[in-house]
User: Which sequence fits this backbone?
């Protein structure tokens, strides 16, 4: 991420009017000297390394906090504190610039200590203010003392250019490959369907099991059998993953009491591919600032990653402990200017550890024996990989470059980097290559998923692919559901049937959406927005039974018996209208109700209509007459805020932005609160069928999700 020639190679550099002492982690303007907290020091160094560009908030999360998610307030506070630290009488102006919806940039010049301060150039009023890069200038004294003949100067310059060109042509195994990477046609396969943030993927050495943390209402630890795709929940709570045993039979994780992470225990879980894992504490000892963030066992040796190296809370080193004798030694000595060492993987025969050293300017990948001996630098990156695996077939170390979306490798046969492979996968929180040709990823934070809900117990299980923007939905029989999603402006159609996810896009087309189903789910109703065609489909093969051309667009329909009620927007007037279509005849009934907003069947012939004028009307589909319904006070209170309405054989469901109410159709008087949405979640659509209630809603990050409730019969 930083420049090839890092300014942080110097011990002291100028940042605006400040002198930054790298070793002492202090800044001085000649009047004030301030010691920077570790977080602010890391933040400033990262800005210096990337002083030529805008840095996104996600980059700060990944490189400074080194987590998958950090609260926005934490980032805001850190930026604010850094601005305060850089402000003085000599440096009164802006130091860190905020770029709206883009990120931040360093707004002062960065230069070596030996370079004299240069006056800030004036920025024209119509130019965007940007940080300026200063080039070295020759002082007047040096100019007068350097009177070399021009032919000699020309010769020297020619030799320097030639030497530079020859150097560039040399292969460099320890520098990130810059060649054009070929694309890899990856077949995507969804591993987990749980809703929430998936992060900290951890693959067993034999690549048969995947451990991960799921964050929703709280943290959950899961193990996935990659052969059967079955998931097993290991634990819940304030958890963090640590590592595997070498044989892949035991998983280690930590749990902490309180928010300060001072009282933590390492746990060992075995019998993982069962409904009840065997869990016991690995150690009962809790030592302040020495709780391992990583813990793995290789034979009789435990390898841990702990902070507080050289008394610095942000600096991590690796330690090895003989499990038989209890003797422990430190096996790595990271630089104090970075954040230390991170375990990537191990290799057998002989046992060696591969780790990544996180410096401010770059990340170095090392290999060493378990006791830290025979330390060897393998390669250097200008990004952090966070995860790597050993590919036995190619005898290579493999990792993922999230910046360039490439699978990178280092061959132990040639002791050099391989050609990167372009992997066309979306940006991920974590990426874990299985080998040179496949990569395991978890998607961005706040995936939008579809979900199954039990109406009585309020228990939820998720039913659709991650990272989709679900739109249309229809509840079907059993636990089946139809939904459509948008991804990069492309509509896909999905049918969840018998716990399988069937892509039916080719059967429907991108311009078509299913908007209703009959009570038995044997027939479906679709609408094509291009030709305004409403179609009755056979649910088994999606073949056409009958179609109608509407005088406008629709997304609302309700089926009862041989009748389809539709709300459409008339193209000429742009007003909502109701149309009743008969599936067993050519009869079409157009209602005169002014601006209907929502519809739901009351019985076989009558339709409940919520109108523009905050009225509930009962429309007789045979006579095409309607009357106003007498509704309870609670329902009257909801009139202005109604979002959607639907019904099954015995209940009417009405949704506001944040609540769903159920009303018994028998008397239309008993109003019950069925669901209260989570904060910043807003309902957009309801759909009911038999004992199913599907809800489409907008999440806090403006993505759509779907939940399906199952109404249990009274005991």
Assistant:
């Amino acid at each position: 991420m930083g420049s090839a020639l890092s300014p942080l190679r110097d011990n002291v550099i100028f940042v605006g009017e400040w002198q930054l002492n790298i070793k002492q982690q202090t800044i001085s303007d000649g009047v004030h000297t301030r010691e920077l907290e570790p977080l602010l020091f890391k933040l400033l160094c990262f800005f210096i390394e990337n002083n030529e560009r805008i840095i996104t908030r996600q980059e700060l999360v990944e490189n400074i906090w080194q987590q998958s998610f950090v609260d926005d307030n934490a980032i805001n506070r850190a930026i604010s504190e850094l601005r305060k630290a850089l402000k003085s009488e000599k440096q009164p102006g802006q130091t860190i610039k905020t770029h709206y919806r883009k990120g931040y940039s360093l707004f002062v010049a960065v230069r070596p200590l030996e370079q004299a301060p240069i006056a800030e150039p004036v920025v024209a009023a119509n130019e965007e203010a940007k940080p300026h890069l200063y080039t070295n200038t020759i002082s007047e004294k040096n100019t007068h003392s350097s009177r070399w003949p021009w032919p000699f100067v020309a010769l020297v310059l020619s030799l320097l250019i030639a030497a530079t060109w020859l150097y560039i042509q040399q292969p460099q195994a320890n520098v990130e490959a810059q060649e054009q990477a070929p694309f890899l046609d990856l077949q995507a396969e969804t591993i987990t369907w749980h809703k929430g943030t998936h992060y900290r993927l951890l693959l067993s050495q034999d690549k048969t099991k995947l451990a991960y943390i799921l964050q929703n209402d709280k943290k959950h630890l899961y193990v996935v059998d990659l052969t059967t795709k079955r998931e097993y929940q290991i634990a819940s709570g304030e958890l963090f993953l640590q590592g595997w045993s070498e044989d892949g039979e035991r998983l280690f994780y930590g749990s902490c009491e309180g928010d300060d992470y001072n009282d933590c225990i390492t746990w060992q879980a075995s019998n993982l591919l069962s409904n009840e894992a065997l869990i016991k504490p690995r150690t009962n000892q809790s030592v302040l600032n020495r709780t391992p963030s990583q813990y793995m066992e290789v034979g009789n040796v435990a390898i841990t990653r702990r902070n507080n190296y050289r008394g610095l809370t942000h600096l991590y080193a690796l330690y090895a402990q003989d499990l038989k004798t209890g003797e422990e030694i430190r096996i790595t000595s990271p630089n104090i200017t970075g954040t230390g060492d991170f375990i990537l993987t191990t290799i057998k025969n002989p046992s060696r550890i591969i780790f990544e050293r996180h410096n401010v300017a770059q990340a170095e990948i090392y290999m060493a024996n378990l006791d830290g001996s025979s330390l060897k630098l393998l390669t250097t990156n200008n990004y952090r990989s966070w995860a790597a695996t050993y590919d036995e077939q190619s005898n290579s170390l493999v990792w993922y470059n999230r910046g360039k979306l490439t699978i990178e490798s280092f061959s132990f046969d040639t002791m050099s980097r391989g050609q990167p492979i372009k992997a066309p996968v979306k940006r991920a929180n974590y990426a874990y290559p299985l080998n040179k040709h496949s990569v395991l990823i978890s998607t961005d934070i706040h995936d939008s998923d579809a979900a199954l809900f039990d109406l009585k117990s309020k228990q939820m299980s998720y039913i659709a692919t991650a990272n989709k923007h679900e739109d249309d939905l229809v509840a079907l029989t059993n636990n089946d559901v139809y939904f459509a999603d948008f991804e990069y402006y492309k509509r896909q159609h999905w049918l969840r049937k018998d716990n399988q996810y069937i892509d039916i896009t080719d059967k429907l087309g991108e311009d078509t959406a299913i908007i209703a189903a009959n009570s038995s789910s044997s027939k479906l109703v679709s609408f094509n927005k291009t030709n305004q065609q409403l179609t009755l489909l056979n649910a088994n093969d999606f073949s056409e039974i009958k179609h109608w051309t509407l005088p406008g667009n629709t997304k609302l329909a309700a089926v009862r018996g041989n009748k389809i009620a539709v709300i459409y927007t008339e193209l000429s007037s742009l007003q909502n209208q109701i149309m009743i279509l008969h599936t067993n005849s050519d009869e079409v009934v157009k209602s005169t109700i002014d601006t209907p907003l929502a519809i739901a069947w009351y019985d076989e012939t009558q339709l409940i209509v919520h109108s523009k004028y905050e009225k509930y009307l009962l429309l007789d589909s045979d006579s095409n007459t309607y009357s106003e319904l007498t509704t309870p006070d609670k329902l009257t209170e909801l009139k202005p805020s109604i979002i959607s309405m639907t019904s099954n054989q015995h209940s009417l469901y009405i949704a506001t932005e944040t609540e769903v109410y159920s009303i018994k159709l028998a008397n239309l008087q008993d109003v019950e609160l069925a669901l209260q949405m989570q904060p910043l979640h807003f309902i957009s659509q309801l759909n009911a069928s038999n004992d199913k209630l599907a809800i489409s809603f907008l999440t806090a990050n403006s993505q759509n999700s779907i939940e399906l409730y199952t109404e249990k019969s009274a005991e």
Observations:
- DSSP finds seven helices and 55 strands in the chain.
- Residues 1-9, 114-179, 284-290, 444-468 have pLDDT under 50 and may be disordered.
